[in-house]
């Protein structure tokens, strides 16, 4: 009797262990996972223009078995997509196109209901079911864009100004697009809905076209072409012969400073690295610093002509395309993107316009390099300085001595490398040194634009 009782107890215990093991298997097994599929609508703005497809992603670790997408409107429900997958996938990316005739709908808001089922054996082999509803506001109207005023022309390597109006209650993005895919930023101007921006035609680009592009939250796009007359300008092509004296002197001196030329013994290779790689690195930093545009609204933009060096003589021009040769063989090339001016040694550099000091440090070929921001994405650059009189973050007033000329960096003699940049693009300093050019292309455009805005 005792043995039979022991066998019975062992049997009960064995069954209990089996039940627990089965329960643990079901609980921890991936086959019986209990997490419902995740449903993510990529267009997270909450708007739909009923033109562009919506992008939807469904994910599940066990695999998506089936999904259904229903659009709920005031006229009822309409199934947009339904599929039971023969080969379940862990991730399903969908494009939800609007139904035929949807663009004529009068609804201002719809609901998108998404259901997804996975391949899990949980829930008595039925799997996990996820359901999510997305409310979408319908916006089929593209932003209204109109040009209020702009400079009459733009020269190759030069600048221009544009003032425009954008009307859209759901405006999301706004920029001026050039034909070379440069995105110029615009700053709010004078009154709500109006914007202003400086444009620049890079000296290396063969042509220029600018279009204001406004995009709303629903993806509607409004555009307006900026009607600028293009004035081509030829820049000097200089063929420069490199001497051994130059290689063993200035280049050897610079090569000792840069990490990129350490271990390079060939003088011509040193020159090539300095003229191309180091220059590109220095200019990349400059472009990053000078690409910022304020976001607050401005009512005016007044600029006096720029002339930083009293009695300074121009010794090298902007836009000069320099090709370097050694013993008749082409070695390297570069563009000179500033105006070199010389006076006497350590001559005072004075800014005629107030601004904020945004950079004051050593910058490779530019030596001691100072950069001032004057607002609206306009910057002035001062290279090869011997010393600075101002610090980063300091606001300087007009007619302030900011530095002294020198020969730091890639400079053969004491001079100032003077640069003007618009949103990270080097432009002709001569334009901004011309009082009449500033009046016709900047001041008068702003004055007339404000008059037009006041009349509307």
What's the story with the biggest beta sheet?
8 strands, antiparallel
Rg from alpha-carbon coordinates? 33 Å
Q: Identify the CATH class of the largest domain.
A: Mainly Beta
Query: Quick one: CATH superfamily of the largest domain?
Result: Glucose Permease (Domain IIA)
Count of individual helical segments: 5
Instruction: State the end-to-end CA separation.
Output: 108 Å
Number of strands: 30
- How many domains? 3
Question: How much beta, percentage-wise?
Answer: 35-45%
Architecture (CATH level 2) name of the largest domain: Distorted Sandwich
Mean pLDDT: 91
Unreliable spans: 21-30
- Described by the principal axes of the CA atoms, the overall outline is globular
Structural class: alpha+beta
Note down, in words, how this protein is organized.
The structure is a single chain. This protein has 456 residues and is of the alpha+beta class. It has three domains: 30-138, Immunoglobulins (Immunoglobulin-like); 144-233 and 446-455, Immunoglobulin-like; 237-423, Distorted Sandwich (Glucose Permease (Domain IIA)), CATH 2.70.70. The protein is 19% helix and 42% strand. The chain contains five helices and 30 strands. The strands form seven sheets. Strands 18, 21, 23, 24, 25, 27, 29 and 30 form an eight-stranded antiparallel β-sheet that branches. Strands 1, 2, 3, 4, 5 and 6 form a six-stranded mixed β-sheet that branches. A hairpin with a 2-residue loop joins strand 19 (320-326) and strand 20. Residues 21-30 have low confidence and may be disordered.
């Amino acid at each position: 009797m005792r043995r039979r009782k022991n066998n019975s107890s062992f049997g009960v215990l064995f069954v209990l262990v089996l039940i627990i093991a089965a329960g643990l298997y079901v609980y921890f097994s991936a086959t019986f996972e209990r997490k419902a599929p995740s449903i993510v609508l990529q267009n997270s703005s909450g708007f739909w223009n009923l033109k562009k497809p919506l992008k939807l992603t469904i994910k599940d670790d066990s695999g998506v078995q089936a999904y259904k997408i229903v659009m709920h409107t005031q006229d009822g429900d309409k199934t947009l997509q339904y599929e039971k997958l023969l080969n379940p996938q862990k991730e399903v990316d969908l494009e939800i196109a609007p139904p035929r005739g949807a663009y004529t709908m009068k609804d201002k808001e719809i609901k998108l209901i998404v259901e997804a089922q996975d391949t899990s054996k949980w829930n008595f082999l039925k799997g996990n079911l996820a359901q999510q509803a997305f409310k979408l506001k319908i916006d089929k109207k593209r932003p209204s864009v109109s040009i209020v005023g702009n400079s009459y022309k733009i020269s190759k390597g030069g600048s221009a100004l544009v003032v425009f109006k954008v009307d859209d209650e759901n405006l999301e993005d706004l920029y001026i697009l050039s034909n070379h895919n440069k995105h110029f930023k615009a700053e709010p101007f004078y009154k709500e809905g109006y914007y202003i921006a400086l444009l620049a035609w890079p000296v290396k680009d063969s042509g220029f076209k600018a279009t204001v592009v406004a995009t709303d939250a629903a993806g509607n796009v409004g555009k307006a072409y900026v009607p600028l007359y293009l004035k081509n300008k030829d820049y000097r092509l200089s063929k420069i012969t490199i001497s051994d004296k130059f290689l063993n002197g200035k280049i050897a001196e610079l090569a000792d400073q840069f990490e990129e030329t350490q271990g390079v013994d060939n003088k011509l290779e040193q020159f090539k690295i300095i003229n191309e790689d180091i220059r590109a690195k220095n200019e990349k930093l400059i472009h990053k610093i000078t690409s910022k545009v304020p976001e607050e609204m401005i009512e005016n933009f007044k600029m006096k002509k720029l002339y930083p060096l009293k009695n300074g003589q121009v010794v090298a021009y902007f836009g000069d395309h320099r090709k370097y040769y050694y013993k008749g063989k082409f070695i390297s090339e570069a563009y000179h993107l500033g105006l070199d001016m010389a006076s006497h040694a350590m001559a005072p550099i004075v800014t005629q316009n107030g601004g904020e000091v945004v950079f004051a440090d050593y910058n490779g070929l530019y030596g001691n390099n100072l950069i001032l921001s004057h607002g609206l994405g306009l910057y002035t650059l001062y290279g090869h300085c011997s010393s600075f009189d101002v610090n980063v973050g300091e606001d300087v007033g007009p007619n302030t001595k900011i530095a002294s000329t020198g020969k730091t960096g890639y400079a053969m003699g004491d001079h100032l490398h003077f640069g003007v940049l618009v949103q990270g693009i080097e432009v002709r300093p001569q334009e901004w040194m011309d009082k009449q050019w500033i009046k016709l292309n900047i001041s008068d455009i702003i004055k007339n634009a404000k008059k037009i805005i006041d009349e509307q």
